[in-house]
Design brief:
35% of the residues lie in helices and 16% in strands. The protein has nine helices and eleven strands.
Amino acid sequence: MIDGSAKRVLVAGASGYIGRAVVAELIERGYFVYVIVRQNTKFAQSNANNLNILSVDIDTKEDWTQQFPKVDVVISCLASRSGRAEDANYVDYGLNSDLLRFACKTKVQHFILLSAICIQKPKLAFQYEKLRFQNELIASGLKYSIVLPTAFFKSLSGQINRIKQGKSFLVFGSGRETSSLPISETDLARYISNCIVQKEFWNKSLPVGGPGPVITPLDQAEMIFEIFNRPKKIKHISHRIFDLLIAFLLPFSLFSSKIKDHIELLKIGKYYAQESMLFYDAETGSYSAEKTPQYGEKLLYEYYCSLRDEPHKIPDMGSQKLFS
């Protein structure tokens, strides 16, 4: 059922993991969906008559939003892939800021932003760029919804191929210090789509995870070993490895932008090795599973089973191969 006041939806970042699921959900609900993709990017979604694909040159010096049609809702699933400072500035802040100017100029009813729960405790370049844009969005006067999901199923699948090859599952510290309530792409897509019509989601930042219980890295390991029928081998790595590598590379970063980027990637790895993807209670200075809103039905265990049955769908997490 479509909200009568909001029928036309523009989705940016539609070719990404969550963006594709959001488009599929909106099509199923009957919205007329405009999908924004980079030039020469294939978007194989469906032949639905309520889907219109717009190929744009995002890297042009011209206003890349000028060919956009008038719509009721903008949903941004844009995110830098690497998390490097330059990419984050360009995508997480810059491209989103362009979208916001378009939305304000054309008097869009509602701007829905897919962000990340990790911005609650920012330490990294991409987190600060996300926050920088979110402050702009909130100050714009537009109706907004900022969705802050916990870990994605895909992001917790990077070691499956290691295990299938007989290698150890890598955990930092004990493997119990961090935890999350991972959410599937389809459940998250439904939640994002619900923001269009559910007034309690308007003008709010919305932390959201999948159904419990919480899952630690060791829990992930147990599931993968069981589902893929591999002998249990776990290797514990000290968090200090990140500090040692950063300290070693730091002097060279003065002369090499590539090394500077690699240091940022190490900082990202350190962050996710030490911080939980849950609601952060600033008053207690701790993460809270109980205060993390849960939504959806799909479980990580079921997702791992689906990857066992359809191994061609196991994601290639090339950027996470630092300790392979």
